[in-house]
Amino acid sequence: RLRARQARAVVVDSHPTAIVAADRLLLFVTLDGRELRSVETARPVRALCHDATGCLWMTMGDQVARLSAAGEIKTVGDGLGRESALTGIAVAEDGRIFVADSARRVVWRLDASGKKIGQITAGEGGFAVPRAFFPIAWQDGHLVVAEPGRHQVRRFTAEGEPVAAWGARTRDASGFSGCCNPVSVAALSDGGVVTVERGQARVKRFAASGELLATLAGPEAFAPVAATLDGEDMFGCEGGLFDVTATADGRVVVLDRSAAELRVFS
Question: I want to staple 4 with a disulfide (CB 3.0 to 4.6 A). Which of 22, 182, 191, 244 is the partner?
C-alpha cells in the first residue's frame, strides 16, 4: 500500500523500481513495497513513461515534462492549452513524443523538444475516450493506443498511419466488457500487450495479434474501496481505477488507484 491519498499512474524502470505519481509526488518504490525516495511535483502528474535511454517523462495538465539526471522536473515545450487534458504519454526511440489528449480526443505528435508536429486521430469525432483516461504505449516502432469507448486496441506508425486494430465489446474474456474498457495498456518486450479493465476487473495478456493468452487476475485480486479522484466518482464512467506497466522480464505491475496499492503479477 502506498503512502498516498490519490495515486494516478505507474511505470517501472530497469532495476526494477516502480515510480508512482501520487498526490504531488513521484514515489520510487521497490516491488516488495519499500519506498526509496520521493520527488515533489508542482502539479499532479497524470501519466508516466520511460524513453529508450531510461529518462522518465510525465504529463501535468496540458504540459509535458521530464525528470533530469539531477532529479529536477523540467518542462518540455509549451503547454498545449487549457482545453487539453494529457492523460497518456509515450516516447519513441528517436525522441519523438506522443501525448494522449483525452479532452480533445487526439494524440499529439511532438518532436524531441516538445514542438507540435501533428496529431493522430480516429475520424472526425476523434478517439472514443473518457476525459479521465486515454492509454497509449510505444512498442517496436508503433504507437499502441487503447480506445476504451470502442473496446479496441489499435496500432499506428509514428506518422499516424493505422496499422492494426483488434478487440470487441463482449463479456467473453477475449474482448472487453462495460462501457469504456480497457482503461490501461502496457507493452511487453515480446510484442504482446497487457490490458486492465474496470467494473468486472480483469488483467489480461494478449499476443500482438490480439489473441488472448492468459487472464492474470480477476475481481478477487482487487478489494473494492470507495474513493474519489479529484472530486470525481472513480467507479463511474470517468474513473479509470487502474494503471498498468510491465518489467523487462514480463512481470506485470498494476496500480489500484482506488486503494492506492500496487499489485505484482507474474
Answer: 22
